[in-house]
Amino acid sequence: MRTVKLFLLVVGILGIALAAASWDRPAAGAQESKASGGSDRLVVQLCDGETKLEIADARAGEVLPPEKAREVARRMMAAYAEQQAKQVSKWTARDRLTWEREQKRVIEEGYKLFHDWKALGGTIGISCDMCHPDAAATHPETYPKFQTQLKRVATLRDMINWCIENPMKGKPLPPDDPRMIALEAYITSTRKGVPLEPGKH
Amino acid sequence: MWPLKWKTREREYRRQREEFFEAVKRLNRREFMKIAGLSAAVFTAKQIVPPHSFQVVDVVRADPQEKPLFRFAYISDTHLYERELNERFVNAALRAVRDVNALDPPPDFVLFGGDLAQLGQPKELELGKQILSELKVPVKMMVGEHDWFLDMGEKWRELFGPENYSFDHKGVHFIVLMSVNEKDFWTERKMTPMERMLTVAQLDNPIQSRFEVGEEGREWLRRDLARVSKDTPIIIFSHSPLYKYYRPWNFWTEDAEAIHEMLFPFRSVTVIHGHTHQLLTHRIQNIHFHGMLSTAWPWPYAPEGLPKLTLPMERPDPFDEADGTGWGTVDVHRDGYVDKHYNLWSRNPITVAKAYLESWGKEAIPPAPEFPPY
Amino acid sequence: MNGGDMRRAKLLALGLIIVGFGLGLGGTRATSSVPQKFQIRIPLGIPADLWEMMIPADNPMTEAKVALGRDLYFDKRLSVDNTVSCATCHDPRFAFTDGKPVSEGVGGKKGARNAPTVLNAMFNEEQFWDGRVKTLEEQVLQPLINPVEMAMPSHEAVVAKVRGIPEYAQRFREVFGGPNPVTIENIAKAIAAFERTLLSGDSPFDHFMAGDPKAISEAAKRGWELFKGKARCITCHEFNPSSPFFTNFKYHNIGIGMKATRNFEALARQIQQMAQENRLTKEALDRLALTEGFSELGRFLVTRQPKDVGAFKTSPLRDIELTAPYMHDGSLKTLREVIDFYDKGGEPNPNLDGGIVKLNLTEQEKADLEEFLKSLTSDWVRRVARGEIKLAAGPTSGNPTPTVARDSRSSRR
Asked: Are A150 and C239 inside 8 Å of each other by CB?
């Protein structure tokens, strides 16, 4: 019921717009835009005050022939429906910015640790990157898996600690140590989107 | 196999299991046949290659090919810290020296392939010189980026002489080419010498420039090559691979094409390079390329760009600190092309024969890894 | 369910699997025309499916064959002067070893290697310290004719001698059939079949792993953690439920025997030379392996690869408390000596395995490790060693039922 009403409302507005156009005046609700790439294409705004549509082959101020105007109305209606299909989120763009910045910060911290044997408590000058440039041959996406050093199925954190203890001759980190999380974040970030191929790594 | 009507579920299971194991056996046999049945040259390649202490094999083996003209050995990428900080790399370098000294007959000389030091510090370089002085045969020194970028080669030149030089040995013209120059990335960043060194020492550091022989080096090479007839076999020692393998890790020489152009007119050219710490085989027209092992640690193979002729080594086991490392020998044939022996400490030695490269990988195929390297 | 109930439930489930397996085994022997039933109780900790998988298709298990093999195993008449049997060096009283540094054959002749246990030997990738043969059947053939072991002049002589013992003739006919059942292959098959019933599991540690926290001491638990971690044992002495044998079946140079001022290079050259001249037959190899000096080349004798000089098979650790002295040459007398040896990073030598490094264990840690090792002794093996369980009375004893781990604690609960 609600949809039908809205539909009528929108069509009504467009009807007015089209009628107005026939009087050789700028369409109601249409406005000139220089923002989108400096073009002067016709931009139509929906009555919700937010949804905008740029008409590719119409210049600002141009009057649309009836057939084209109907097509624009249909597309605006579809855009409006799409907006309505989304839930109202409590997460804002600002939240997302924070998430991304924090993750990036921890990954960068991990990158530093990965290249700094002293910061990880190594004692003989060997750092992670000396065997794993760009975290190569770490395969974080394949864990947990059987590890021949430990002779059991192990996690990435187990292996980070194995390397700290053995080649680097340091002391293992507690699993919740921020350095451990940072290392894991960096290592994992290098393999985002790499398909998992059991047996290959 | 049993007639179909006798099949019970258990028998079917047994049969399938047996077939599976048979298939495994067949696979192994076929692998063997593939390698063993190809040609006489293949036989040579698969034979036990003279590794460190057991040279008697070499003396008695029936070699269907021409006998090599001479042999030299190599030790490379020792990456020495001072002994107090890291004994492991020092011990590995000493082990290589001892193994080379045990070669019987001794090689004509030893190539040191660069990256003697880890951070180019005088004490590291001096320690390296001391270790290499234990070698019983002459040593030809080549510089690596780890030896260079703290003082831009000052200490190196003092200890070992110029970075570019050439010499002739038994009809082969050898060129030691400094190929790890970088464009100045440090001045505008106001880096200290140690910051510059640490930047270059970090393989995956994107700030640094790409390796190159550079204009001066190319000019030096041009003048050196001008003195040599086009029929003279040429062997070039270069720390960087002298071709383009993987840019992000400087497994790369930026002006490789310009160098190749200078080398194409020659009948036989071989490049022996360090830096990559892995089995690496490549050929561009008349130029054969061979990598060297490190005594310190193996690098993983780069995620892309591996030369097609390379049969990579299986991934090293980090529990065994010697795995994937070692040293090697090079048998030089009359025409200047070489059989390259990788003497891996924890594995069977691997030979990349001259015939393999000459046939573009069709003959004398070295053993392939069972598990992927990367 | 409280912890105890949970544990009982787990153990009960385990017991049922074993029984189910034992029953299911009959009729699946595809190589035999008559379905035969062979019942064996697999001790706790040893995967029953793996046991089944490791039985070769051409030597199926039958009770008569196992009984025949057992009698051959204990029969000294298989040696040239009727003084040495398999059991002389693989004696149940010492967990199927002999308690000596190196084994002694006929006339007290000494070999060069410490007798490895037969327990769980069926699970080995290869047999002997250097892995010079693959199967138990192949292994049996060598000591019979090695001059410092049973010293029979040839396999033909062994067959002739066994044929001449009347009580065996009938049993070989029953087990193997055919016009000519006494062959060297069938002798080997029978003994190997018996050896496949010599299983070690059901140790306090196995009960600990099965969920009984009180099965081993606190010291042993600390030792287990060290075993997996700081002491780096588990990488070679592999243990996990899929492969619970405390060995990776691989070969490593840890420096034992390398201390001697011996020219290994010259010895290795001789081996290369023999190989070039096709003189390295199985028999020649077997003799060299038990000859002082050559013996120390270890795995190199088989592969002739330099990396294998001085490398020997990782020893399994079950029942280790009962199998002193230790190492391939029996040169370490106690478990503590063994732990000390690894603690100092093995014996330095040109070919030392890259995984052998100094461990810096404390005295407490060493004691804990030793405690842990002592928790690996099978209850059944210990009772056999004490003489509480008899395996055989003699060659004609004729008890056809293999007595394997029959009183495992798992089945009692």
From this structure: no
ipTM of the complex: 0.80
- Is C265 tagged catalytic? no
Q: Shortest CA distance to A127 belongs to which of C375, B106, C356, B201? A: B201
Q: Which helix (H) or strand (E) holds C201?
A: none
**Contact between residue C224 and residue C233 where contact means Cβ atoms under 8 Å apart:** no
**Is B102 in Cβ contact with C265 (below 8 Å)?**
yes
Q: Is B203 on the interface with A (CB under 8 A)?
A: yes
Q: Return the percentage of chain C with pLDDT > 90, whole number.
A: 79
Provide the CATH number for the domain formed by A94-189 in this structure: 1.10.760.10
pLDDT at A9: 47
- Segments forming the whole domain that contains residue B73: 39-358
Q: Which residues of chain B does A132 touch, with a Cβ-Cβ cutoff of 8 Å?
A: 300
Among A137-146, B56-65, B295-304, where is mean pLDDT lowest?
A: B56-65
> A with B: how many residue pairs have Cβ under 8 Å apart?
50
At residue C116, the pLDDT reads 97
Cα radius of gyration (chain A): 29
Residues of C with CB below 8 A from A149's CB?
A: 235
Q: Are C111 and C103 in contact (CB under 8 A)?
A: yes
SS3 C365: helix
Nearest to B73 by CA among B343, B310, B277, B280: B343
Nearest to B100 by CA among B91, B92, B110: B110
C10 torsion bin: left (phi>0), alpha (psi -120 to 50), beta (else) = alpha
Instruction: Name chain B contacts of C276, Cβ cutoff 8 Å.
Output: 57, 60-61
What's the rounded Cα separation, in Å, for the pair B83 and B130? 12
Residue C273 has pLDDT above 70, yes or no: yes
Q: How far is A124 from chain B (nearest CA, A)?
A: 5
pLDDT given for residue A149 in this prediction: 93
Q: What is the CATH number of the domain that holds B263?
A: 3.60.21.10
Predicted confidence (pLDDT) per residue in C275-319, tens digit: 999 999 999 999 999 998 899 999 999 999 999 999 999 999 999
* Domain C63-200+382-394 superfamily per CATH: Cytochrome c-like domain (1.10.760.10)
Q: Do C272 and B57 touch (CB under 8 A)?
A: yes
Angstroms from A151 CA to nearest CA on chain C: 6
CA atoms within a 13 Å half-sphere pointing along the CA-CB vector of C152:
23
Contact B300 A124 (CB under 8 A): no
Classify residue B139 as exposed, middle or buried by CB count within 10 Å of its CB (0-12, 13-18, 19+): middle
Cα separation, C329 vs C296, whole angstroms: 9
| 3-class DSSP assignment, residue B23 | helix
| Cα angle, residue B126 at apex, residues B124 and B132 outer, rounded to 5° | 105
Query: For residue B279, what pLDDT is reported?
Result: 97
Task: Report cis status (omega within 30 of 0) of the bond before C101.
Answer: no
Q: How much is the pLDDT for C237?
A: 97
| CATH no. for C204-255+312-377 | 1.10.760.10
Express as a percent the part of chain B with pLDDT over 90: 80
Catalytic position from the list C63, C126, C137, C149: C149
Contacts with C239 from chain A: Cβ below 8 Å? 151
Residue A76 scores a pLDDT above 80: yes
Residue B184 banded pLDDT, cuts 50, 70, 90: very high
The alpha carbon of residue B372 is apart from the nearest alpha carbon of chain A, in Å, by: 6
Cα distance between residue C173 and residue C179, in whole Å? 8
In total, the C-beta contacts within 8 angstroms joining chain A to chain C are: 13
Domain ranges of chain C: 63-200+382-394, 204-255+312-377, 264-308
Contact flag A137-B319 (C-beta cutoff 8 Å): no
User: B77-111, pLDDT tens digit by residue?
Assistant: 999 999 999 999 999 999 999 999 999 899 999 99
